[in-house]
Design goal:
Blueprint (H helix, E strand, L loop, with lengths): L18 H8 L3 H8 L7 H14 L3 H8 L6 E6 L5 H16 L3 E6 L4 H13 L4 E4 L7 H9 L4 E4 L10 E4 L1 H15 L5 E5 L5 H17 L8 E3 L4 H13 L6 E4 L2 H13 L9 E3 L16 E3 L2 H16 L8 E4 L1 E4 L13 E4 L5
Parallel strand pairs: 1-2, 1-3, 3-4, 4-5, 5-11, 6-7, 6-8, 8-9
Antiparallel strand pairs: 10-12, 12-13
Helix pairs in contact: 1-2, 1-3, 5-12, 6-7, 8-9, 10-11
Amino acid sequence: MSSERPVRKRGIRRMRVSAADVARAVGVSPATVSYVLNDRPGVSQDMRDKVLSTARELGYPLQAHQQNKGRERTRVIGLILQDIANPFYAEVSAGVIDAARARDYEVFLAHTQESGEMLAKVVDTMVTRRVDGVVITVLHPEDGEVVRRLRGAGVPFIQFSRRIPDLRADFVGIDDCAVASDILRHVVADHGHIDVAVITGPPNSSASSTRAASFVRTAQTIGLSLPPHRRFNAYLTAEGGHTVVQRLMARDDLPRAIVCGSDAIASGVIGALRSQGLKVPDDVAVTGIDGVFPAASMLAELTTISVPRRRMAELSVEQLIKRVDGVGGPPQVLIQPHRLRIGTSCGCRPESLVSWTRTAQED
């Protein structure tokens, strides 16, 4: 048994205290700690007292376990989106609702439009309305207090598409680094474009920041110049892409290709170019990421990365309900495969359109 005095984790570190941390501090197996925390038989009273005492010293959220034990389910889960007007989130919403209803749950839906204040209000409302769990698509690194609020109330949650780095919590998403690298390599290696600009979403989004960093790293690897004046951040809407193109045109500095971090941004880029009489891809090649536009849309030939949004939604609900049921094991990171969908907006000819899928196991 460990003789060292346990060190209580404080501030943002408190979110990382796990049952395994408690087990190491006490000198017992994680299974023993699980038995104690879930009030199961098979552990002596002395050991039970020791585990609970150590958990309190470390700052483990015992309140969550205590509340869960006597908590009556509402059979409602929360879904917090970035912006429901974004087609990506519209399909995620439909997938979560369908998956939840298949398990006899309903969904309390809200969006924050990147407002931390709104996120805090939405979480408080969901906790007050006693949702059984929450799927969150909008977490930023500065949202630690929101996480503490959920854990203090005993409400399990799933990080979807975005996550807080180093947070011990379930995550469902894609390999954003590989996604950005794949689409940029296609534009540069397959089409030979050397004057390229990239537009990604808000830098405090883990998905957008990872894609932005991957664009820079991939450019360095393949010998492409991607200076700061060719790198932009925008809101994840068509308006965001439109605004960047307006800035580029105002200074007469349009690149030969624009690689976008989302299809929503790409749609704004294409719209802005067309409004100025420019042709895609003859004048400017454009690509996106997400694969959200249906075949009947004006962007049917957009070269993009298709993301399995429905499957991700189903996995999120499945994992969340496991947490509501008190099972699921250690935090899960569920990375899903993506698919490069070749259209004509990059310059590929219609007869050469192909697609390929990268699985989560590929480099």
